[in-house]
Specification:
By secondary structure, the protein is mainly beta. About 15% of the residues lie in helices and about 50% in strands. Strands 1, 3, 4, 7 and 8 form a five-stranded antiparallel beta sheet that branches. Strands 2-10-9-5-6 form a five-stranded mixed beta sheet, with no helix packed on it. The protein starts with a helix and ends with a strand. Keywords: Signal.
Length: about 130
């Protein structure tokens, strides 16, 4: 075989090789979702989110949540924040947080996490509402 025909054969086979490779996961394939969007205003409110693999819709366990913040940015008061405490997991792929929703209105829960086996950082901002 000469160089040109060999090169042509390799180029022709390339789509078959690429198609046979396993799909590569991406941190963008994951997201946190609130299990409910409205909460009663007050102290000791428990907010639960699920970490979902968007490709399969299945919950993802064992993420390492390293950043968490809740504030009233949806109401234009980003400096109005409350402490957030991560609670022990109650079910696979569920992550619960205890906080004080001291005012009624819109609140933003910001989360940063590492997903096991993935590179990159997952960052989500979730909007919820505190009702009187």
């Amino acid at each position: 075989m000469t160089f040109i025909p060999t090169l042509r054969a390799l180029v022709a086979a390339l789509p078959l090789v690429v198609a046979a490779l396993p799909a590569v996961a991406d941190i963008k394939n994951y997201e946190f979702q609130l299990t409910q969007h409205e909460f009663k205003q007050g102290n000791g409110v428990v907010i639960t989110v699920k970490l979902i693999d968007k490709r399969s819709g299945k919950p993802v366990p064992d993420a390492v949540i390293f950043a968490k913040r809740i504030d009233m940015e949806p109401e234009g008061m980003a400096t109005m924040a409350s402490p957030v405490q991560l609670l022990p997991a109650s079910e696979t792929g569920a992550y619960s947080f205890k906080t004080d929703l001291v005012m009624e209105g819109g609140w933003r829960l910001s989360l940063g996490a590492k997903v096991q086996g993935e590179t990159g950082t997952l960052e989500n901002k979730l909007i919820l509402k505190a009702l009187p």
